[in-house]
């Protein structure tokens, strides 16, 4: 792949900032567009940061007119499942409406390669595990529905306008840059690994485990955790795939190994050497017992291989960031 110029929308956020760093390491030219509502200016470690919103059609027109982008990467979705239920308008406006505005600017300026951050939430309640790409899509919350709507729109845009895209369905992103340069800074934090690490660091009194009576070996939910740097590598491979003429396609991203909530707590205790207080709460509605990816298609087609697959590696890198 020749040296590309990539527009990274949402590149100041958790996953986007790791992607921007990797693009810089690979020699790509990077322009980041981020409204900094959840991202951080100091997380953009290379390239040019443009503070603005993908809802701003005039700004997008100026950006695309000034630069010849080879591809666009989209990390700018709202992502909290619970909030999507209590405030669905926010999710339909941003995740659907604003994304369509971005796609419209790409059409207008002839940019025809797009990498989209999707989610395992498009599947809804799993009918089997591990979940492959053929699993029915039946999202059960507005967050998952908005992502599935864009996936369907991308199929339609591909047929009608020649826009080729890759949708990457994350399972559970976790971890941090191995050198402690970048990490997770959500406010409020809702992801399990940083919550448990914050309890170990004394930044919160305890971590709550929602349900301990599931049909799993230790009674707690099982999830597929994937290191954020492995996610970034998958996006790079998706860019390569599109640059070589690959057709519009969706891929699941996960390690294929499930770890329970209790195993995450135990791993944090082992890595940090610190106690973690745990409180057991009631089950949350819509939480399946097991959610694990079958990522064989990404391995085959994208030639992607997770390099930080162990739970201990994920926790160790996240702890290095938390300790800062």
TrEMBL record:
GO molecular function: UDP-glucose 4-epimerase activity
Sequence ranges assigned to domain NAD-dependent epimerase/dehydratase in this UniProt record: 6-254
Enzyme class: isomerase
EC number: 5.1.3.2
InterPro entries, A to Z: Epimerase_deHydtase, NAD(P)-bd_dom_sf, UDP_G4E
SUPFAM superfamilies recorded: NAD(P)-binding Rossmann-fold domains
Keyword Isomerase: yes
A Pfam family annotated for this UniProt entry: Epimerase
Cofactor(s) it depends on: NAD(+)
Entry keyword annotation includes Iron-sulfur: no
Pathway: Carbohydrate metabolism; galactose metabolism
Family per record: Belongs to the NAD(P)-dependent epimerase/dehydratase family.
Subunit structure: Homodimer.
Name recorded for this polypeptide: UDP-glucose 4-epimerase
Lineage: Bacteria, Pseudomonadati, Pseudomonadota, Betaproteobacteria, Burkholderiales
């Amino acid at each position: 792949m020749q040296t590309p110029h990539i527009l990274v929308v949402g590149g100041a956020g958790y996953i986007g900032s790791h992607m921007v760093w990797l693009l810089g390491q690979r020699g790509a030219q990077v322009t980041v567009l981020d409204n900094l509502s959840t991202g951080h200016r100091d997380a953009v470690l290379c390239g040019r940061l443009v503070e603005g919103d993908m809802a701003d059609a005039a700004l997008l027109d100026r950006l695309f007119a000034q630069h010849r982008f080879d591809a666009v990467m989209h990390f700018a979705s709202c992502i909290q499942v619970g909030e999507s239920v209590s405030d669905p308008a926010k999710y339909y406006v941003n995740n659907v409406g604003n994304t369509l505005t971005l796609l419209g600017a790409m059409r207008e300026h002839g940019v025809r390669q797009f990498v989209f951050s999707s989610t395992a939430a498009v599947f809804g309640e799993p009918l089997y595990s591990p979940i492959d790409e053929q699993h029915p899509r039946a999202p059960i919350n507005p967050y998952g529905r908005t992502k599935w709507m864009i996936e369907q729109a991308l199929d339609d845009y591909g047929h009608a306008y020649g826009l080729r895209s890759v949708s990457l369905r994350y399972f559970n992103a976790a971890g941090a840059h191995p050198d402690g340069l970048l990490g997770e800074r959500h406010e409020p934090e809702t992801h399990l690994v940083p919550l448990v690490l914050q309890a170990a660091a004394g930044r919160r009194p305890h971590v709550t485990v929602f349900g301990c009576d599931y049909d799993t070996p230790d009674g707690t939910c099982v999830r597929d955790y994937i290191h954020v740097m492995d996610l970034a590598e998958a996006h790079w491979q998706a860019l390569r795939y599109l640059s070589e003429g690959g057709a519009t396609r969706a891929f699941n991203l996960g390690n294929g190994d499930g770890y329970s909530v209790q195993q995450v707590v135990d791993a944090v205790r082992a890595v940090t050497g610190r106690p973690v207080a745990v409180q057991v709460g009631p089950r949350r509605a819509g939480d399946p017992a097991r959610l694990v990816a079958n990522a064989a298609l990404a391995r085959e087609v994208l030639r992607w291989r997770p390099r930080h697959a162990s739970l201990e590696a994920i926790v160790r890198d996240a702890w290095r960031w938390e300790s800062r």
